[in-house]
Design brief:
mainly alpha, 18 helices, globular
Length: about 425
């Protein structure tokens, strides 16, 4: 029997680590109403805490990528999961709004940063020579898997018991993953005496990041990237991506449905239903990104997402469960499907070694958009007592993002900016 290559074991550990970090982030929507009722905090304050978390985990991405290069993958994963677990434990004792902002904004935001930003491209780039797009697709889809399996469970625990039971479940899962990472995670294939999956001959590894200041590594990557037009187009489209996914849907979809009389558990089930199709769509997107023009994949993903967001307010106003299911299918299919082709274009333009840090900055733009939508959605609701315009604007922005990505020049051997040209 042929032995399983350890790269796949690393992928599995990373997959479940991202699930745990992802469910913390995607669970914010089911905690808005319970926090509002128990503590008497207004929705804009709660939204601000979640917005700070979304922004901080995004902006930490390039620094996490640099720290991996300096400290190693395993140490960074252990540290990040421990920080995440600390934030979850502190949730049980919070009493004031500023504590919510510190815990769910700062601590949990930074703790989830590594897992939800640069871990996927790092694993794909360093542990895989072949099937990189598929590896990214699987890892990116893991956030949807957690949402699919756990969001309804969290909603039922909140509905039947309290939000503390739901946080307790997340605490147990985080503790288990911390132990698994400690026991089985490795920094590089060399630690196992093997080559990356699909690589038949060892190549000379660059050691340009060794013993350098991770902050300088991150900012040097940004200074090089901002000189390239494609970086701005990818960052702009990813700003809209974050605005229209984790920022708006992830934070406010459940509350939006509940404002039309849809029960909490049913709303969470709809969100998890999206997760089914996101799991399929993102994995397939990774497979497609290895085979087709990534620009056109992104064009269709943003266009379809924009159309589905424009449909949602109408579906809720009409009270049509059929239209809500149709929305969940189309939206779910490309929720995170944009990630593999975005990483693919970044790798083509900036090279394997530097694309992790550059993608970290692109993802920071994603989370800036998420923070705007998370906080802005709460403000719009406070002013208009409705989320309608928040979702309509998000749909229009998605259609605009589809134009950003299609004007990126197709990468050819003559036009690709390699790592060597960036060093010059």
């Amino acid at each position: 029997m042929k032995r399983i290559h350890y790269s796949w074991i690393i992928l599995i550990i990373s997959f479940f680590s991202i699930i745990v970090a992802g469910i913390v982030r995607s669970s914010s929507g089911v905690f808005i109403d319970p926090f509002e009722k128990e503590f008497g905090w207004d929705r804009s304050t709660i939204s601000l805490a979640f917005a700070v978390g979304l922004f901080l985990y995004g902006i930490s991405g390039p620094f996490m990528a640099a720290l991996i290069e300096v400290l190693g993958l395993k140490k960074m994963m252990v540290t990040s999961m421990a920080i995440l677990l600390t934030g979850i434990l502190l949730t049980f004792v919070m009493q004031q709004p500023w504590q919510l902002i510190m815990i769910w904004g700062v601590i949990i935001g930074l703790g989830s940063g590594l897992f939800l930003t640069v871990l996927s491209p790092y694993i794909a780039n360093h542990w895989f020579e072949k099937k990189r797009g598929l590896a990214v697709g699987i890892l990116t889809a893991s956030t949807a898997t957690g949402q699919l399996i756990l969001l309804p469970v969290l909603a039922m625990l909140i509905d039947h018991y309290s939000w503390r039971w739901a946080v307790g479940l997340i605490m147990v899962l985080s503790s288990i993953m911390l132990v698994v990472i400690l026991l089985f995670m490795k920094n590089t294939p060399k630690d196992m005496g093997i080559l990356p999956y699909g690589l038949e001959k060892e190549r000379q590894e660059s050691n340009e990041f060794e013993k350098k200041n991770p902050i300088m590594i991150a900012f040097n990557g940004l200074f090089e990237a901002v000189k390239v037009k494609e970086f701005w187009l990818l960052a702009g489209s990813f700003f809209v991506c974050g605005l229209s996914t984790s920022g708006l849907i992830g934070t406010h979809f459940v509350s939006y449905c509940m404002s039309f009389g849809v029960p909490l558990v049913t709303s969470a089930l709809l969100l998890s239903f999206m997760g089914i199709f996101d799991l399929v769509g993102t994995t397939v997107s990774g497979w497609l990104s290895d085979r087709f023009d990534n620009r056109w994949l992104l064009f269709w993903y943003y266009s379809l997402r924009g159309a589905s967001l424009l449909l949602l307010p109408y579906a809720l106003f009409e009270g049509s469960f059929t239209l809500l299911i149709i929305f969940s299918v189309f939206y779910g299919l490309d929720w995170i499907a944009t990630v593999p082709p975005t990483i693919g274009i970044s790798r083509q333009i900036f090279g394997v070694k530097k694309s992790g840090i550059v993608y970290g900055w692109i993802f920071a733009s994603h989370q800036a958009g998420a923070a705007v939508a998370a906080f802005g959605g709460g403000i719009i609701y406070e002013i208009l007592n409705s989320y309608k315009w928040a979702f309509l604007f998000a749909g229009i922005f998605c259609l605009l993002a589809s134009l950003f990505v299609i004007v990126i020049k197709k990468q050819t051997p003559a036009s690709i900016r390699t790592e060597e040209s960036l060093k010059a």
